[in-house]
Structures are given as C-alpha cells and as structure tokens.
C-alpha cells in the first residue's frame, strides 16, 4: 500500500499522545504500545514480525486487530500480554511498564489484570463450570464469593449451568464459560484471539455480542485478533496491521467496509 490516509483514517496513536490526558477522568490508556518491534531469530535467519508499533487502547474500548496473514497480529497480542518480550519498545498495561517485570511478577500481573479468550476454550474438563470460572480468583489467592461467580455466569447467559462440566456444554456455551472466566477478575484488558474461530455464525454472534456488551455495560477494555470482518464489526474500531506496522484504523466499520479495507491491504 502506498498511502493509508484515505482508506484508513489515522488513529490517535502517536508517541506524543502518551503525555496527554485520556478520557473524562484524564486516565492513562488501559494499554499503551510504544514503538514495539519484535525480531524472531532462528537458524533460517531473522524475521521482523513487528517493526515499530505505537498505539494506545483507551479504557473501555473494544478494538479488533486485523491484517493479512503474517502481518504480526499474534506477535502483537503476545507482546502486549507479556507472553513474549518485544525486541524494542515499551508496553504499559494499566500504568505498569511490563519491561521491568520478571517472570513471577508478569504471571501475577496476567492473572490479576488480564483476561484471555482463545479459539480453543481451554477449560479444565474435570472442573465444573462454577469452578472453572472461580479458578482465576483462587489463583489470585482469593476465596471466590458465590455471588460474584454467579453474577458473571448470569452476564454470559449461563444461569443454571454452574454444576455442569465442560463436556456437557455446546461449543458456544463453553466459550461463554471461557469469557466468564476471563471477566471474573475484572481485568484491565481482555485479550481475545480468534474467539469465534471454532463456532458457527449464530453462536459467534452471541459470543461477540457478549464481548461488546462487556464493553458497553462494564467499560471492559477488549483487544480481539480476528480474520473475520463480521466479527471485527462488533468492535468500535478496527486496527489494521500490515507487514509489522500499523496501516490504519477504521471506526464503526460495517463488515463490507472492513472486508474492503482488508482487500486493499492484501493487494
Ligand atoms: N516463533 C517464531 N519464530 C520465527 N518467526 C516467527 C515466529 N512467530 C511468528 N513468526 C513470523 O513473524 C511474522 C508475524 O507472525 P504472526 O504470527 O504474528 O502473524 P499473524 O498476523 O498473526 O499471522 P496469521 O494471521 O497467519 O496468524 C510471520 O512472518 C511469522 O512467520
């Protein structure tokens, strides 16, 4: 792509914006990426997966990350969540710079301030729905209150399913358990990686509706990687990556507009 300006309105993500107040309360962004670069080195050579990504994810925003295969989406998510370390640049989550943290502190931060939803639901098969959802609280050293677990099960429409085990649920219901498990700690950022990749379109709509509702009702900040323009249209903004760089963004795009922007990037 030679120019991104017309098809992709410029996002408000520039290094200087880190110094600006955010939102009505002047809060820092939920997630700030500043000049993130990631080079993978192997015997086959070096691959520059990210080449300087600067972006802020405002509190309470729901952002989809899209881009052609190999554009760096998974790498971005991994670096943002502290699952991998960038070669250069800074990630600041809820005001906490990740680069200064050791593995133990990073694990604690992930448990307490991040939620994860993947294509594979990753539920523990031997635990009930209730215990799967309560697990992150237990891992934080907290005794889960019955009310808080039940409230989040209600939020995802799983009333009455608390005693079931994952194998007794449909795929869509299992993904809703995974979302409940991700939301129960009230994380600063919920990371979702192809959350509807294994679901049919009707069930996908329900799951995406839940993610959107969590933003609208509870101010949940969500970052979702997806290949699907229909899924991305549930987000307020789509951030496009191309060849390890931010190519632009699109606010409140329709699936058709998002698909057209993707086609332009893939040309
Ligand atoms: N562990 C690794 N070692 C070497 N290269 C890697 C590694 N992980 C990713 N890459 C390379 O980095 C680039 C970005 O990969 P990444 O998985 O982030 O892209 P993506 O946009 O998520 O792709 P896809 O849509 O196909 O999942 C690609 O060229 C990929 O081959």
From TrEMBL:
PANTHER family: ABC TRANSPORTER RELATED, IMPORT ATP-BINDING PROTEIN. GO terms for cellular component: membrane protein complex; plasma membrane. Residues 1-19 have a biased composition (Polar residues). InterPro entries: AAA+_ATPase (IPR003593), ABC_transporter-like_ATP-bd (IPR003439), ABC_transporter-like_CS (IPR017871), ABC_transpr_LolD-like (IPR015854), MacB-like_ATP-bd (IPR017911), P-loop_NTPase (IPR027417). One of its GO terms (molecular function) is ATP binding. Residues 31-266 form the ABC transporter domain. SUPFAM superfamilies: P-loop containing nucleoside triphosphate hydrolases. SMART domains: AAA. This is Putative ABC transport system ATP-binding protein. Residues 1-21 are annotated as: Disordered. It comes from Kribbella amoyensis. Keywords: ATP-binding, Nucleotide-binding, Transport.
């Amino acid at each position: 792509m030679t120019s991104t300006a017309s098809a992709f309105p410029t996002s408000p993500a520039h290094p200087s914006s880190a110094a600006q107040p955010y939102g009505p309360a002047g809060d820092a962004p939920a997630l700030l990426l500043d000049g993130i670069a990631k080079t993978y080195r192997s015997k086959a050579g070096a691959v520059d997966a990210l080449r300087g990504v600067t972006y802020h994810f405002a509190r309470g925003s729901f952002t989809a990350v899209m881009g052609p295969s190999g554009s760096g989406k998974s790498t971005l998510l991994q670096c943002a969540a502290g699952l991998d370390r960038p070669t250069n640049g800074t990630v600041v989550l809820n005001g906490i710079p990740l680069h200064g943290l050791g593995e133990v502190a990073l694990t604690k931060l992930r448990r307490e301030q991040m939620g994860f939803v993947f294509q594979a639901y990753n539920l523990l098969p031997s635990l009930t729905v209730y215990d799967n959802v309560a697990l992150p609280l237990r891992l934080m050293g907290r005794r889960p209150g019955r009310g808080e677990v039940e409230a989040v099960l209600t939020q995802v429409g799983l009333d009455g399913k608390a005693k079931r085990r994952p194998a007794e649920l449909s795929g869509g219901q299992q993904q809703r358990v995974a979302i409940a498990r991700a939301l129960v700690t009230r994380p600063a950022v919920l990371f979702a990686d192809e959350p509807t990749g294994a679901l049919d379109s009707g069930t996908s709509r329900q799951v995406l509706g839940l993610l959107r509702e969590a933003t609208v009702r509870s101010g949940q900040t969500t970052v979702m990687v997806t290949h699907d323009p229909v899924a991305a249209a549930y987000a307020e903004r789509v951030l496009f990556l191309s060849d390890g760089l931010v190519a632009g963004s699109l606010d409140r795009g329709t699936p058709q507009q998002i698909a057209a922007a993707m086609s332009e990037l893939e040309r």
